[in-house]
Design a protein that fits this description.
The chain is mostly helical. It is about 65% helix and about 0% strand.
Amino acid sequence: MEENNLQFHLSSQMIEDIHTYSALLNKDTNTILNEALTQYFENEQEKLMAAKKLETDNGMTNLDFDEFWDDVEI
C-alpha cells in the first residue's frame, strides 16, 4: 500500500499569503494549493517539452535567413 502522506514546510510568509488569498478569492486553502501545484506542474511540463524539442531539432532554428542574421554586423 502506497503512503499518501507528505511532509513539507512552508515559510510563515507563504502561509500568511495563502490565508490572505484564501480570504480575497473566497477559496479554501486546499483549493489554492491544488491550483498552484497544478499550474506549477503544467509550466514545468511545458519547459521539459520545449527542452526535448530543442534536443530533437539538433539546435535548428525556426528563423528564416534574414531573421537569423538581423542586427549582426560583420
